[in-house]
Amino acid sequence: MSGLVSAALEKGVLWLTLRRPQKRNALSRALLAELAASFMRWRERQDLCVALLTGEGEKAFASGGDLDELSLLRDEAETLQFAKETRGALDTIRRFPVPVVAGLNGDALGGGAELAMACDLRIAAPHARIGFLQGRLNIATAWGGGTDLLRLLGSARALLLLGTAEALDAKRALELGLVDGVAPEGEPFRDFVAAFASRLAARRPQVMRAFKALAIAHRFGAANAEMAEIESRAFTGTWVHSDHWAAAEAMFSRTGPQR
Question: How do 121-124 and 100-104 pair as beta strands?
């Protein structure tokens, strides 16, 4: 590994950090490959409840694709291969077995917005912006971000954001439902992210895996029957787990028998 992505595990929370601050965390092929490898390496850890993806520095979560590399793509077949390769890297995030939160420490623009959308949830520093700027370069989204945007906001709002190529400030992104929380002015962003993650990490790992399995199936268009089967199996597995009986006993001891 080249050190473009750092990883640390703290109390059930996996912190992953993009480390190209001098390039505004631009998404080079090497960074994307390392990011995918990091998610693949951690996916079997049974003690994880949530993963957090953020960028180093305060200016950018990810400023987009690495333009030095992208400028070399001229051939149609090579361009298509790159798009599929990068979408595959982001799919390791979409299919990660516990929820992934994007901590937008700064701007998430172009490909950086697609990376943010690959995550399950997004929270932002007050100065952060998110925007699908691809239209300004007369190109379309490539890595699944357009699909994610349509799924989250619906076709009308998504088309408006894609067509106008507007960079939204954190407050507006929160109003639209594009992000799920914005840090208060003056609060250290890491503290805000840690507090947000702790709400999810309060659950047991097998429960968060069960919830994420259902979310993955929905995201990738599973049929109702498949969704029902996944939910039933998840319920059964978590019901018979000793953690459920311990929680039920604790709740019963506080509330007493229900009559």
Answer: parallel
> What letter would DSSP give residue 101?
E
Rounded CA-CA distance 194/121 in Å is 14
Domain ranges of the chain: 5-201, 205-255
192-241 per-position pLDDT tens digit? 999 999 999 999 999 999 999 999 999 999 999 999 999 999 999 999 99
129 contacts 168 by C-beta, under 8 angstroms: yes
Radius of gyration over alpha carbons of the chain, in Å? 19
The CATH superfamily assigned to 5-201 is 2-enoyl-CoA Hydratase; Chain A, domain 1 (3.90.226.10)
In angstroms, rounded to a whole number, what is the distance separating the alpha carbons of residues 161 and 3?
34
Q: Which residue in 228, 212, 24 sits closest to 111, CA to CA?
A: 24
Distance CA 43, CA 93 (A): 10
d(CA 98, CA 48): 7
Closest by CA to 82, choosing from 73, 90, 92, 71, is 73
Write down the residue that tokens 């790159």 correspond to. Answer: 82
Running DSSP on this structure, what letter comes out for residue 59? S
d(CA 13, CA 54): 13
What tens digit of pLDDT does each residue of 30-42 get?
Answer: 999 999 999 999 9
